[in-house]
Amino acid sequence: MLFVLLQIPLWKQKSGHGDRPVIWDYHVILLHVRPESDSLVYDLDSKLSFPCSLRLYGTMAFRSDCHIRPEYHSFLLNFASDRSHMKNPDGTWKMPPPPHPPIQTAECQMNLDDFISMNPAVGWGTVYSLDQFLHTYTENSTTSSISSSLP
Fold first, then answer.
1. Pick from 85, 104, 103: nearest CA to 95
2. Under a CB-based contact definition with an 8 Å cutoff, are residues 9 and 21 in contact?
3. Is residue 127 within 8 Å of 120, Cβ to Cβ?
């Protein structure tokens, strides 16, 4: 059976860092139900064995989200997409849409542009200049140290 997991944090993912989860808008796994033994999960993005027993996958990949940083909860509570960005000007789909309903909140059906806006007064998050970004997230506080190390 194919399962689509919506708005879910998963641990032990290849794109994760250390013991931190990856927060997927949606994620697809295959569950092979075996009546005589443990069911198997096929997750192409997991660092766990492939396939992996459902018992192990359930223990290692699914955990409480109570320790996830509050801004991620805010994202999951505020993000909405009606999928209009996935359509051509004539209204046809660029690619087939996911089978699950669009992600919406009680207040909003579409605010994707607010999440990608470069206007600091719009949406969520912080817009940085390159120097601000480097100063905030690395020990390098100027672009010259980065550009001088390039070949």
1. 85
2. yes
3. yes
Which two tokens mark 53? 């027993």
Q: What is the pLDDT along the chain (151 residues), one digit of tens a residue?
A: 656 565 678 899 998 888 888 878 778 888 888 778 788 889 999 999 999 988 888 889 887 766 666 666 666 677 888 999 889 999 999 988 877 788 888 888 998 888 777 788 887 777 777 667 566 655 444 444 444 433 3
Tell me the C-alpha distance between 146 and 56, whole Å. 43
Distances (CA, A) of 135 to 129, 142, 149: 10, 7, 17
Name the residue among 113, 116, 115, 121 with its Cα closest to residue 76. Answer: 115
Contact at 8 Å (CB) between 87 and 96? no
Distance CA 63, CA 50 (A): 20
How many of the other CB atoms lie within 10 Å of CB of 52? Answer: 21
Q: What is the pTM of this model?
A: 0.47
How many other C-beta atoms can be found within 10 angstroms of the C-beta atom of residue 45?
16
